[in-house]
## 1
Amino acid sequence: MDIACGRCLMTPMETLSITYCDISQSDLNYFSECPKLFQLKHLDMKGVGLKALDLTPLRVLLENVADTLQSLDMKCCKMKDSHLAVLIPALSKCSQLAKVSFYCNDFSMPILRNLLQHTANWSKMNVEQYPAPLEYYDDFGYVSTERFTQLCAEQVDRLRAIRRPKSISFATHMCPRCGECCVYGRRFRPCLCQRRRQ
Ligand SMILES: [Zn+2]
């Protein structure tokens, strides 16, 4: 990957899409150094492995695009709590965000709550997608329908105290048995084996 400015023209980019690949720390460092990116409207990083990286440059980028960024896709980035914690202060300032996805990352309930509590500025949010927190799973990697729907409803209620979510959903990792996810949204969609059991 090479998004280095180098000799490139300074035309601002509106969309940056780097998906399903690995990037290095020095690649990520460009995010905070490249003024060309500072008017981004869409940032798509789905499937980029971020587990081993320091996300401070991404936080700096998010701070720089807080007034322009409309969509952020960070599905399947292998992020953990420590990564999200770095981004929350910047995410909370992104007032134009209308679409965000964090599906398939490994977040705990406290950090997800922390994120949601800092989203009062997301008044334009249309579609928001979050991973089911790790506490929702049992020791075997399964999520019971009752527990999942109850915990998700609690998260949404808590969020309603600070703003009105339009379309919010939570999804589990792929079920180890059937390979489908359970999705809690406007409707609850259990994975195949849970549907069969009903
Ligand atoms: Zn299943």
Note: The first strand starts at residue 15 and ends at 17.
## 2
Amino acid sequence: MAIAAAALPMLPGAGRAAGSAGKRLVAITRVIEVNGRPAKVFGLIGSDGRSGLRLAPGERFRVDLANEAGTRTIVHWHGQLPPWTQDGFPWPESPPIANGAVQAYDYAPVPGTYWMHSHQDMQEQSLMTAPLIVHDAAELREDRQEIVLMLHDFTFRTPEEVLAGLTGTSAATAQAMAQKMEKTAARTVGSNAPHASMSSMAADAPEAGMSGMDMSRLGGMHMDLNDVHYDAFLANDRTLADPEIVHVERGGRIRLRIINGASSSQFWVDLGELVGRVAATDGHPVNPVASSRFPIAMAQRLDVLIDLPETGAFPILARVEGNDRQTGIVLTTPGARIARMAESAHAVPQVDNSLEARLTAVEPLSARHADVDRTIELAGGMKPYAWSMNGEYWPQVTPLMLEKGQRVEIELVNRSMMAHPMHLHGHDFQVIAIDGRPMQGAVRDTVLVMPMGRVRIAFDANNPGRWAFHCHNLYHQATGMMTEFRYQGIAT
Ligand SMILES: [Cu+2]
């Protein structure tokens, strides 16, 4: 008993004991069938037996997370704004939950489409992920059928095997190699010319992923896509060989909540003959944008409103960028005939910021001058496979120090040939420029920075603590692409 108690860190702000009238969420292992084979994966199951959590309007996030996964874990409430010790990030002050232990959470949640995933090791790849839907009264009054579509990339390999295949060595060795190359490049051309140093680095090291060949093809849009070969792509844990069939009314009105829970894959959501309107991104309302095809980067969410025609079967597909593979679900009205769908079709292009550029926030930030204005450079390559922020590799990073009340602007500058979906914990931010073009863009928690592209974000420092800021490509994060924003006065 003493051991169990010791495994329950007291959370400042949680203010109650485990077991007191919270919703129960259990981290487990389970077996699903993929491509006709059993696959042992993790899961996060609520007391209603479904994956994840659904909260009623005004309901607090009072959750007891029981770890029955057979190993330590910690679960991050992605996009939510809890006190930092409840964020589900493995800081020394909020350590992982031991197997068999229970952790209590209690905070006021933000309404919208959110999700949860392990931030421990690479458990996210093994499906320690689930929807987190926070309803609000206005949305319920719309009287739309809610359909959650959660996307994953799946491999029968362990994530450790995937990572070893990418680095060809350990992450630490790959970082050391990358740092040595950066130093060589800096000596050659001087450290204050990042563009020049990158091309010089490529010339000095033709084996590098950021190679002269890649640079010369930039105009032709030759990019690195899809680091990892996956065995399957899942929509609500199923492939198109046996997709989820969702029954809808004739002429039904739908709110489709799409969550990209994949670890290293991005998709084009394809509504086929239907037209949808994006009404929210990462849980935050946007002025509606109509289309039949929407890009979704890793960790992002899209709320799409669809008014169905009278009758039919309507596949909602998610097509993997730069690739011919697809997954999805089928909406069907009573009696409609459902055609079988192939798991591969024609290839689709790279996911981009074409939708982002059209989005405008319903509730933008107030107009205000920035107190803190920083540039963060994103860099890295395939050989050695290591990814950095301002030349630093997690966990050897210099925190960006903030003070409560500051307006912060960050210019994200991508010096690499891969896109990086950048996620800030504990805050929502507004996209205020793409490639130098100012905009009153979406408020969200994850934004894609295209190869050699730039995105400017702004947020108010209103949630004191220690907060991770990282690429949501799991293998970029695991090889260094993460840093910390820390408030003054937070003792560590
Ligand atoms: Cu990345």
Note: The CA atoms of residues 277 and 290 lie 4 Å apart.
## 3
Amino acid sequence: MSTQELLGALEWRYATKRFDANKKIPADVWQALERALILTPTSYGLQPYRFVILTDLEKRAELLAHSWNQPQVVDCSHYVVMAARTKMTEADVDNWIQRLAQVRKMPPAALTAYRGMAVGDIVHGSRGKVSHEWAARQVYIALGNLMTCAAVLGVDACPMEGIVPAEYDRVLGLRDAGYSAAVACALGYRAEGDKYAALSKARFDAAELIRKI
Ligand SMILES: Cc1cc2nc3c(=O)[nH]c(=O)nc-3n(C[C@H](O)[C@H](O)[C@H](O)COP(=O)(O)O)c2cc1C
């Protein structure tokens, strides 16, 4: 991909307000976006999140009332609810260590120092006290990754913080599993006539946002 194509995709994307409810993301494109989600990097690699992907309308219709009635929830092709771990435990770290050892074909004992570092920080250290917040920050990395990849593949998206997490947790049964909705992302294809598509991209100047030293 050329630099021009990359920037073209990022200029093209916008927070889509109106999706064409009749246009669905093809399976192969969705598979790539799902894989992109999974490939998101996280602190210590711990992946303290779960993604609930809703294509069925029933649950989405229920969530609409807890989303400021934003039509993207029901009109998009795929609605992704991104949930953060509410509290990190030693078991979470061990679960990851087991997986890492299995994938890299090494004994878990070889990862003892790594485990100690992660547990001492994210479970029992100062960040352990705010591990839900920490987990939510990891979720936002996944959100950014998903949106950029969607834009590159010509898929529209709307990141959505306008949701009531407690209600999402209840409807999707997230709390009992130790997760809480942090943010959502509606994906699909823009409806003709969504006036937001025609608005100029508004950002601060580079000189304001970037300091070069
Ligand atoms: C984390 C996050 C949450 C957002 N929540 C909503 C939302 O609930 N509803 C909405 O219509 N737009 C939402 N937006 C869209 C922003 O308003 C939009 O991205 C921003 O104004 C920049 O415009 P652009 O994305 O069209 O370039 C959200 C964006 C982000 C990054």
Note: The longest helix spans residues 131-152.
## 4
Amino acid sequence: MKFTSLYSGSKGNCYLIQSKEANVLVDCGLSLAMIKERLAEMHLSFKCISAVFVTHEHTDHVSALPQLELFEKVPIFAHEKGAKAIAEKTMCKSINTIGASLQFKDMTVDTISCSHDASFCCGYRFTDQTGSVGIIADTGSLPVGIVEFLSPCKTILIESNHDEDMLMGGNYPYKLKQRILSEKGHLSNKQAGQIIKRLVENKCAVKNIVLGHVSQNNNMPELAFYNVVKILENMGLYEGKDLNVCVALQDKRSPTFE
Ligand SMILES: [Zn+2]
Ligand SMILES: [Zn+2]
């Protein structure tokens, strides 16, 4: 099971998951042209994309969805609790729904409920014969059952949106700061670190940690990265040796993790 972040951040998010039989995208912010550009860097064309799984209706996750439906006719999936809001926002007519779990080609797709100010937001886990990939983004608090959900995942994309001090000291309006910090906002570096610590303590399968949805105003890739590296080092584990840590960026594709 392979994972690549095509781009990640408050302007747009799109991740590529690849098994033997399927290539699926999670979310499609920005534009179809941008997705094609990043796929082309990997010598892939959009024709190889088997489906798109959407987390929630916010623009940075769905803005390319109408183009995908119109020009590419690719199957779109969303959680049954969030599909209506995504359809209303994007005017897409052909959204398939997923509940707790679904079999798609050789992948088992599982969902987990996130805490976010969307109609409904879910995280995804994709599993094939070789292993699992987990994606948890846009959640203000750690989802219930998160450790069990991510436990089999060798690669995880976890939101590491903001540094709390940068956010509070920055120039965002007070209300927006409160929204980001709230239970229905976004995960801070500290919260991302808490999950990773629990996954390692519980001897979960995690080997590749990709930090995503990193704010360009209230965070720095280095801060997010070293926050996790330090937590691992305190547990006697070293980045690049025991585990890999990577920050998914807005303007650059991540390495592909297997
Ligand atoms: Zn959102
Ligand atoms: Zn978002």
Note: The mean pLDDT is 96.
